[in-house]
């Protein structure tokens, strides 16, 4: 007979790590945006880079952060459900 399920503590830890990763990406994104804004850099290359950073790169990092946050929340929900199912 196969037993299905997860180690609840490990699953909760995974959820926490995923959410911490999300927060770290947000922190780095914010810090890099501030550093870029404070960098003395003029010209077409600077304008192009800033435009790409503020458009494409920030958006991509935001999507990754949100995905990690959601995955972390789902892992914690799954752990709670597993704990409830095991208690029956």
Overview of this structure, please?
- Helices cover 84% and strands 0% of the residues.
- It contains 2 helices and no strands.
- α1 packs antiparallel against α2.
- The two termini are 18 Å apart.
Give a summary of the structure in a few sentences.
With 88 residues, the protein is mainly alpha-helical.
Low-confidence residue ranges: none
List the total number of helices: 2
Class from helix and strand fractions: mainly alpha
DSSP helix fraction: over 70%
The description of the largest β-sheet is:
none
Distance between the termini: 18 Å
Residues in β-strands, percent: under 5%
Which oligomeric form is depicted? single chain
Tell how many strands the DSSP assignment holds. Answer: 0
Mean pLDDT across the residues is 94
| Element pattern in H and E | HH
* Rg on CA atoms, Å: 20 Å
Gross geometry: rod-shaped
């Amino acid at each position: 007979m196969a037993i299905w399920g997860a180690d609840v503590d490990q699953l909760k830890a995974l959820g926490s790590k995923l959410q911490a990763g999300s927060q770290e990406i947000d922190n780095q994104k914010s810090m890099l945006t501030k550093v870029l804004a404070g960098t003395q850099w003029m010209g077409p290359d600077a304008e192009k880079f800033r435009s790409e950073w503020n458009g494409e790169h920030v958006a991509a990092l935001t999507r990754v952060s949100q995905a990690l946050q959601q995955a972390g929340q789902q892992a914690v929900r799954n752990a709670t459900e597993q704990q409830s199912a095991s208690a029956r």
